[in-house]
């Protein structure tokens, strides 16, 4: 088992069991206790677990959003996603070249931009499929290995293809955001893709509903240095507003 796969397995075990012992995980994964202890220390450094002598426990307050199937995520916090989509409907312009990621949050945006002539590049199968009915939108679906659970492509072929594109606007989401750890995600490959999209875009919109604040997921994406706008369905706390202002991130939220 690769190191990154082993860490993901340990992470999933913590989500299920809350507390794990080093000895038991070493036996289950067929690796040395020293290897498991090293993996635990990395998770502790990320703020996800707290270690004790023989094992570790999950930090409940830092519990990240579980990487669930896209069809399930579509149904979660749907009202919040729809509210965010309405907030940014006016940022789209004719002839835009944009990137839309595979998040259910971004998927919800499609209905508010369907009447604008633009080019859309995406790794999301469901996004590309929905745009098939709109003749005014030129859609590019990035190739690569299909991730059945997340309904997208996200392997090395996909990342290499991304290098050929430059977007004037990108719309992405993530699993969690925190002041201490920045933008994080529960999926390694998707985190890499989102990082690459940020680098290749003039303006980046990060869409996160309020349930994702003050949480930490497994993989670090960015420290907000590549984010131009954060879109959320209600005003963040004063601590967050101050932090985002210091990072020069514009915040879009309902003003009413």
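Sequence proposed for the structure above (256 residues):
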């Amino acid at each position: 088992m690769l190191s990154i796969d082993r860490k993901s397995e340990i992470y999933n075990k913590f989500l299920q069991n809350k507390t794990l012992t080093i000895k038991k995980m070493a036996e289950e994964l067929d690796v040395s206790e020293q290897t498991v202890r090293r993996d635990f220390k990395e998770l502790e450094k990320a703020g996800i677990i707290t270690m004790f002598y023989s094992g570790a426990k999950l930090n409940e307050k830092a519990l990240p959003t579980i990487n669930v199937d896209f069809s399930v995520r579509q149904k979660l916090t749907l009202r919040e996603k729809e509210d965010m989509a309405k907030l940014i409907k006016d940022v789209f312009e004719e002839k835009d070249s944009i990137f839309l990621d595979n998040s259910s949050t971004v998927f919800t945006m499609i209905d508010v931009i369907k009447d604008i002539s633009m080019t859309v590049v995406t790794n999301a199968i469901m996004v590309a499929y929905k745009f098939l009915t709109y003749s005014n939108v030129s859609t590019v679906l990035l190739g690569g290995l299909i991730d059945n659970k997340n309904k997208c492509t996200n392997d090395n072929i996909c990342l290499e293809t991304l290098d050929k594109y430059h977007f004037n606007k990108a719309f992405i989401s993530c699993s969690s955001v925190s002041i201490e750890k920045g933008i994080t995600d529960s999926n390694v490959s998707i985190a890499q893709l989102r990082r690459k999209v940020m680098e290749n875009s003039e303006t980046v919109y990060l869409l996160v509903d309020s349930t994702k604040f003050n949480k930490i997921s497994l993989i670090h994406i960015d420290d907000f240095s590549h984010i131009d706008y954060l879109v959320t369905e209600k005003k963040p706390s004063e601590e967050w507003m101050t932090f985002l202002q210091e990072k020069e991130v514009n915040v879009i939220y309902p003003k009413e």
